[in-house]
Every structure is written in C-alpha cells, then in structure tokens.
Amino acid sequence: MNAYAIYTSPISILIALFYLALAFFVFFKGSKKVFNIFFFAFCLSLPILNFGLFALKYPPFRIFIYLGLSFIPSSFFCFILHTVKKDQKKLLSILAYGPSFILASLFSLYLSQDLSKLRALEEFLILFFAFLIISAHYLLFEDLRAADREGGRKDRLEILFFGGGLTTILVVFDLLYYVHLPVYPLGNMAAVFYVGLSAYTLIRSQFLEIRLSRSLVHNFISIFITANFIISILAFERTLRLFLGYETFLPTILFALLAGVILHPLRQKAQVFTDRVFFKEEYSAHKTLRKFTKEIISIIDLDELLSSIISTIKKVMRLEQTYIMLHEEPEGIFVSRGLGKKITLLKDSPLIEHIAKTGEKVLKTETEEKRFSQKLREDFALLCAELVLPMICKNKLLGLLVLGRRRSRVPYSRKDLAVLETLCDGAAITIENAGLYEKSRLHLLGTIKALAATIEAKDPLTIGHCEKVAVYSAAMAKELGFQEEKMDTIRMGAYLHDIGKIGIAEKILFKPGRLTSEEFSLITQHPLIGLRIIEPVKPPREVTDIIKYHHERVDGKGYPEGLKGENSPLSAKIVACADAFEVMTTGRIYKRSMSLKDAIFELRKCSGTQFDPEVV
Question: Are residues 151 and 167 in the same domain?
Fold first, then answer.
C-alpha cells in the first residue's frame, strides 16, 4: 500500500475531527484571549485541508485543499504573533490575512477555468506559505532570547519554536515524495502531535509548568541536521541520475562520507549555540551558585553567612521564600533564621530524625509515600517547604536549608538539586567554622569586659568608659564603611585600649592636680604595658594596634612612639577620637565635663593636629 494513501483514507477524516475538537475545546477554555482565537482559526484551517485531501478524487472538492493551504500560514502566523511580545499586532494580522483571502478567491475563480494561472498561483502560495512560517519562527526566536523562566512563559515559547520547526521540516520532507524520492509521510503525524502539544500548553499554562529539556533540544537539532544530511544525499543521487546519467553508487557514497565528516562538528556547534541562547539563564544560575559556594568559605561572621546564603539562593532559584533551620545548643532545637518569623523544631521531630539518620534531602512530593509518617508530613507543612536539604559537617546535622515554591512553579531539576547539595556541603563547613569563631569571639569579649571592669572599678567616674568608647568607635567605623568583621575588631580593641593602666599606680591615675613630668612619663607607658598584657591572648593585629597607638597624634606629638600622619593605624585614630569624646562629655577628677556641643567643637578644633580629619 502506498504510504501517502493515508491522506485520502478515512484516517484523514479522523485527524480533521481531532483538529476540530481541539479548536473548540481551546476556544471555550479562553475565548477572550486573542491567541486562543487565532489558534482556533489555525485548527479550523487544518481540517479543511484534510477534507480536501480525503476527497481528492472528486474535482469539485479540490478547492478545500487550496482554501486550507491559503489560511494555514496566516492563521499560524497570527497565533504566534499574539503569543509573543510584538507591537502593531493588528496591522500585521491584517497584512497576513489579506493575501489569504485574495488567494482563496483566485483559486476559486481559476480552479476549473485557467490551469496556467492556477500553476502561477500555486507557486505564489508556496512562497507565501514559506514566508509566514519562517516569519512566525523568527518572532518566536526573538521573543525567546528576551524571555525568562518566570511564569513558565519561556518554556511554552520553546515548545512552540522547536515543535513548529520540527513539524515544518517533516512536512517539507513529505514533499520529496512528489519528486519520486522514497520517503515516509511523517509530516501529517508531526502536525497532529504539534497541534495537540500547542493546545496542551495553552490550556495548562496557568496550572502546570512544562519544561523543555536540553536533551530534547539537542535531539531536535540532531534530527534537523540528519534530515538535511539525508535530503542532500538523496538529492545528489537523483541529480546524478537525471542530469548525468550515472547509475553507480560510488559518487553517492563519497558524497555521504564527506557530508558525514561535516555533520558531527556542525551538530556540536549548533548544540553549543542553543545552549548559549536558550539555556543561558540556567547556566548562569548554576554558575552563580557554584561560585558562591567557593566564596562563602571566607565568611566567618555567622549572621552575614546565613544572610548571604539565603539571599543568593532565593534570587538565583527564583523562590517565594527560603530560610535556614539552625541547630542551637544546648537547647537541642532547630530555629528558623532569615524567615521573619520564628519556627522551631525539636531534635526528636520526625523530619529532623529522618534527615539526621539518612543524611538525604526530602522533597514534598516524596512525603506522600508510605515510608513517611503523617507527623513528618505535618513538619513539612509547618515549614511551608517544597524541598529540605541537610547541612552536615563531621557527621553532625548543623541545620536545614528550607526551600519554598518557585515563583514560576517549575519543579527542581536534577541539576538544581546537585548544585544545592554542593552548596549545602560547603555552607555546613563554613557554619561550623563560623560557630567556632563566634564562640571564641564571645569568650574573648567576656574576658575583655572582665579586664575592663577591673580598671573602671578603681574610679567611679570611669565606670562604663570602655563600653562607651567601644560603642562610639564601632559607630564611627560603620560610618567610615568598615565591614562587620573589622567593626568587631575595633570594638574589641576599644574595650581593651586602657588595659595597660592596671600597671599604673592609683595615686598617679587618680591625682586631682597636674601631673609632674616624671608622673606623665609613667602614664605614657600604659599603652606598652597593655600590649605586654594582651599579647599572650594573641588577639587580631588591629586590637594590638589600638592598644599601642590610641594616644598617637596626627602632628606627631603623641605617645608612645610619636607617629605622625598616616603612620598611625586608622583603627587607633578612631579609638583616639572616641576616647577623647567620652572623657570630655563625662569628665574626670581633674577636669569638668563638657556639653555635647562643646565637645564636638573641641574635636573639630583639634582636627588635623591631634585627630585625623577623616575620622572627625
């Protein structure tokens, strides 16, 4: 049986009925949407063609073939036109449908009268058909490049573009039959599949996201290039037979080998191009997460670390919400961080126990399986989670990365999960280090406060002095653009800046009158005494700089080394200014306190001599 008999068999009528059913179904699902109306028109033009093919042996019914072919390209073009973002849609629709009505009228006029004019119209129809189909795919391609995944729009455009392209290729492939090349008629079946898939994307676009995988795109490219490869070989062979009279297969084999050599690198280059154009967003997201995984290793502040993880993942994965459930000791509970509200899970909750035992991620879709308990599902509902990943370091569960729904409702792909798991592994190590740093920092600060308190206890007027200087110094550092880690170091140094006064006799420290030169010489030693006291603790370099240099002056008249200008560290200059401000506003046994206005005036007056103008 001739394979092309399918067009004149009852199957053609069944296909026509399928098109009609889809047309009305999509229309009634969204009759107010313009692209649904044009899809309806497109689906109506297809059964007209099918009916004409079925009744081909009856000459009067041949008009239906020409009517279908006249309106298919314009209806398809307008359907695509109103799907993409394009200006002047009304004008372009009129320009597309105008030739269709003219062609339909002329075919009706010349069908039974003037065959020569009919042939000319057929040639024009082929050009018109090709122009609108190519234009429609060009519109899709341009819109694809500007679209993003949010809302699933890009995914639907990809289906229309690649599905339409493949269908067009197979329909053109069918035409080779009419030049006596032995090909199977796949075009009609491809059209049925494409129209059905297009209808599905229109109907379900508001409820279900459809992802077009990279492998499907690559397969499409392979089919496209291979089809052209086969067509080239067949056309080459037929050319040899018709024009040169060759009957041997040797030239054809040589041509096939040459085309095969070109085929493989061409396919690879085409795949690289599509990856760059159509999957750029996905590549960029995964690349950003991988880069961030390396960068977070250097963050030692826990709050900064958690904030960076949450904000980066939320932005890159396009999430409605994401946060971290952090394990807190000694309570043994997991508390939400970065959510805006507090959620708590006990360490013996079903979800925590399951993840701690298995060390594996859990998807919401998996929780419906029988192996998960109802209480675990309740934990998932409490978290409002679509995906929960563990953060494990040294076989210890430090926290959970909780991801909510994506704004586009796109499910998490395998590559998404792989990248997120890698990020969680890196984050767990960093959280462990940040936790250790936080404990050490708090312990050191506690020690510093205790030492500072022993100094302040010697004089009621100095109680709270170190704490106030620390607050002022941190505020000034923040204003100067210091990062949180540096601000902590300056705060620590400010607490300790006068620790060396422990080694100064009380009669000198609390002398109400003017100091003698010998007494002042002893006072100038307190920065060096403080340095010797603190060095065994091995604090950060900035802390020792503050202790040693907080009495240096810009004009070089300070102590203990008489450093001038930029030779003194900025951190020490900040504390020097804060120290003087606190002393002036609080007062001492040897000096009355000033008003806030007078203290600020004094700082400005001494700017450039005693204090750094940048700090003041």
Answer: yes
Q: Does the pLDDT value for residue 278 go beyond 60?
A: no
CA pair distance 43, 53, nearest whole angstrom: 16
Boundary of a domain, candidates 212, 228, 249: 212
CA 197/CA 163 separation, integer angstroms: 8
Rg (CA), the chain: 39
Backbone angles phi, psi at 85, to 5 degrees: -90, 110
CA dihedral 546, 551, 554, 560 (to 10 degrees): -100
Separation between Cα atoms, residue 442 and residue 491, nearest integer Å: 12
> Cα–Cα distance between 344 and 507 in angstroms, integer?
56
Per DSSP, the residues of 441-463 read HHHHHHHHHHHHHHHHTT-GGGT
Task: Show the tokens assigned to 318.
Answer: 């396009």
Render 230-271 in DSSP notation, one character per residue: HHHHHHHHHHIIIII----SHHHHHHHHHHHHHHHHHHHHHH
3-state secondary structure of 114: coil
Which pair of tokens denotes residue 188?
């009609």
How far is the C-alpha of 128 from the C-alpha of 118, rounded, in Å? 15
The reported pTM is 0.42
Specify the DSSP element, H or E, that contains 392. Answer: strand 387-393
273 inside domain: yes
For residue 463, give the CATH number of its domain: 1.10.3210.10
User: For residue 142, what is the domain's CATH number?
Assistant: 1.20.1070.10
- Average confidence (pLDDT) over 412-426: 80
Percent of the chain topping pLDDT 70: 72
- The four Cα atoms 593, 595, 600, 602 give a dihedral, to 10 degrees, of -50
